[in-house]
Design goal:
single chain; 271 residues; alpha/beta; Rossmann fold; 2 domains; six-stranded mixed β-sheet; six-stranded parallel β-sheet; 11 helices; 12 strands; globular
Length: 271
């Protein structure tokens, strides 16, 4: 089996390391590479895959949306997200999936957070926020979206059947939600930090804070949550869980929770 991750740039991706460990531990023969593919060369790459050059690929920025019209089919969940992060090439066809949203939900469940009936506050309204918010809503969460651009927050909130709040209302909104998920670049290396983390103090005492940023692994938001004694989950958890779901699409083998936990610990130790 020949697999890869595509994007531009792609050299920083941890996907090869994760999937090679899955292959090794699950006894799946094959290879996994990082391949630079641009928007201009994407159509040729998909054609090569359909001709048998690849068995599957993961898709990262900036290709998650522009690959959609090049695929022969996408699962309904993926169509609702409008973005693809996994492609399987089978029988001359390219089929797309999105494991980011389900990865958020599954990684929370593995940490004891059952989404059904909970209130989730999602920060951001971009691609990552969309996948997370839609998956949480599908899992039974009441989703509220908070973003710097109110119009984008309102559109995403409407799709989730939830509400939207202004960025300035974040501290008030935080008090009403048991899950706060950061799907913005704030706190990422090379990006600005949150102007204030006062909203963490407003969260309920048993709240979970999920920061999708994984570089650095220990963000200021996570530290603030841990200082309050809250459960803090970092972006590496999603990276491993969405990879496990992708691996299942590629191979039919579902990596178990213990293996995912081992790989997550390896990644955290290496950062």
């Amino acid at each position: 089996m020949r697999l890869c991750v595509i994007g531009d740039p792609v050299g920083h991706s941890l996907s090869p390391r994760i999937h090679r460990r899955f292959m090794e531990r699950c006894g799946a023969a094959g290879s996994y590479e990082a391949v630079t593919v641009t928007a201009e060369t994407l159509e040729d790459f998909v054609a090569q895959g359909c001709r048998g050059a690849w068995d599957g690929c993961n898709v990262t920025m900036p290709l998650k949306e522009c690959i959609l019209p090049l695929l022969d089919a996408v699962e309904p969940w993926t169509a609702s997200c409008g973005a693809v992060n996994t492609v399987c090439f089978r029988n001359g066809r390219a089929v797309g999936y999105n494991t980011d949203g389900p990865g958020v939900v599954e990684s929370l469940r593995l940490r004891g957070f059952a989404p059904a009936g909970q209130a989730a506050l999602v920060l951001g309204a971009g691609g990552a926020a969309k996948a997370a918010a839609l998956a949480l809503a599908q899992a039974g969460c009441r989703v509220t979206v908070c973003a710097r651009i109110p119009e984008k927050a309102a559109v995403l909130a409407a799709r989730c059947g939830g509400g939207a709040v202004l960025w300035e209302e974040l501290p008030r909104a935080a008090a009403e939600h048991g899950l706060l998920l950061n799907a913005t670049p704030l706190g990422m290396e090379g990006s600005p930090e949150f102007e204030s983390l006062d909203f963490v103090q407003a969260l309920p005492t048993k709240a979970v804070v999920y920061d999708l940023v994984y570089h650095p692994t220990d963000t200021a938001l996570m530290r603030a949550a841990e200082h309050r004694g809250l459960t803090a989950v970092g972006g590496l958890a999603l990276l491993v869980q969405q990879a496990a779901l992708s691996f299942a699409h590629f191979t039919g083998i579902v990596p178990d929770a213990a293996l995912c936990r081992d790989i997550l610990q390896e990644l955290e130790a290496a950062q």
